[in-house]
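Standup notes, structure subgroup. Blocker cleared on the manganese (II) ion input:
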Amino acid sequence: MTTITGKELIALGFTPKKWFAEALEHISENQLSENEMLDYLEQFRAPDPIPLHSEPQEFIINIKAENDSETDNVEKVINTMKVLMKTPTLVSGAIMPDACPTGPEGHIPVGGVVVAKNAIHPGFHSADICCSVMSTDFGKADPKTVLDTAHSITHFGYGGRDRGSQMPMSQELMDAFRENFFLNDERLISIARSHMGTQGDGNHFLFVGISKNTGNTMLVTHHGSRAPGAMLYDKGMKVANRFRMELSPETLKENAWIPYETEEGKQYWEALQRIRDWTKENHESIHNAVLEKLSIEKQDRYWNEHNFVFRDGDLFYHAKGATPLDDKFLPDITGPRLIPLNMAEPVLIVSGTTNGRNLGFAPHGAGRNFSRTQHKKSLAHKTIDEVFAEETQGLDIRFFSNDIDISELPSAYKSAKNVRAQIEEYGLCEVLDEVMPYGCIMAGDVGKNAPWKRKKKFRK
Ligand SMILES: Nc1nc2c(ncn2[C@@H]2O[C@H](COP(=O)(O)O)[C@@H](O)[C@H]2O)c(=O)[nH]1
Ligand SMILES: [Mn+2]
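Run returned:
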C-alpha cells in the first residue's frame, strides 16, 4: 500500500487543486499500490498547454489609409490583428473600412471580425454585448414631432430609470433569465428591469431621418445591453480566464475563451441569446412607446446587432463592431441591415451575403481616427458653441444632459465618404436606401453637470 501527501502530488507534476484532498483520501481508503495510484492519478493530469499559432492566421484587410491622418490608425489595426490572429482558437478574420484600435497590440480592433473554432471569447464582444441599431418607419409623420415625442420618452445617462418611470421587462424574459446559470442573479435581474427603456451614453443615439426612397420618417436607435450585458461580460471573462490559465496560459488575458463544448460554454451561449432578447426588447420599448403616444401604426421595422457572437456549426464569428449580412447568422431577422455613419450623414440601409472578402459582414459605422481626447485637442482653438454650430447646421441636434459633447460631433468620426467608397471598392454590401438626417439626441458630455449627476448629489 502507498501513502502519499499533497507535497508528493506536486512533486509528481500536479498543480494544487480542490481534487487533491479527495484523491489523497481515495488512495488511502482503497490502499492503492504504487502502480494503481499512478493509474488513478492520470485522470487528473492537466492537458499540455495549447500553444499560440506560430504565425498569425490569415485575415482579410478591407481598409486603406485615404490620407496621412489615417495611416497611423490603419497600421495600428493591422499590427494588433497580427498578434490577435495567433490566438490558438482562431481560424480566420477580417477588418472593415471603419476599423480602429481599442487598446494594446493583440486586442481585437473595432471593425474586426474573427472566427474561432468551438470557442466563445467574451473579450471579443466586450462589455457592450449586442450593441445594435433598430429602425421604425413612421410613415409620413412629421420628423420634429417624432423627435420631440421620442425626447420625452427615451432615457440617456448612467444607471436606470427611477421607479416611477420604469418600462416593464417582459415576464417571459425574466423567467428565461432565471433558467440560465449566468443570468439567474437577482441583482442582475433587478438592474435589467430598471435599465429597460434606457440608452446609456457615449455614441449611443436616437436619430430621426427621412428615407430617400419613400420619403417616410424613420426613427433609429443605437445602444447595447446596458448594465445587465456588462455584468454578463464580467462573469464570462472570469470563467474564460480560469480556462485560459488551465488550457493556454500564453494566450493574452483579453483573448481568453470558454470552450463551447463545456457546460459553461453552452450556458454562456444561451446567456448571450437572452441578453440579445433583452436588448431587442429595450429598443422596442422605446420605439413602441413613441408610436403609441403618437397613435401611429409602424410601417416597417429593421434591427441588427453589430457587437455580438454568431454561430455557424462549430465556428463562432465574433464581430466587434461589424454588421452581420448573411442570413445564416440571424435566423430571426428578415429585413435589411442598418449602418449609421454620424449625426450629419444618412443611416445606410444595406443588404448582402458572404463573399470572398467580407466573411458575411459589412462595416458598422464610420469609426474613429483619433481618440476622444485627441479630437477635443484638435478643436481647442474654437469654442464648443462654434464647433457645434459649424458641424450641425440645418440639423436638430440635442443632448439629453444639455451639455454639448463635441467628441460625438461628425468631425470625431472618419470621413463617411471614404468609408462608403471603401464599402464599394471591396464589394462588402449593397446600399438599398439612405435615411437622410433630420435630427438626433445623444447623452451629452457626461463629465459635466448632467441631470443624473445632480440628482445623485441631491440624494446624499
Ligand atoms: N447616425 C449617427 N451615427 C453615429 C452617431 N454617433 C456615432 N455614429 C456612428 O455609429 C457607429 C457605431 O459606433 P459603435 O459604438 O457601435 O462602435 C460609429 O462608428 C459612428 O460611425 C450619431 O450621432 N448618429
Ligand atoms: Mn454600437
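Discussed briefly. The chain has a mean pLDDT of 94.
Next: hand off to the docking folks.
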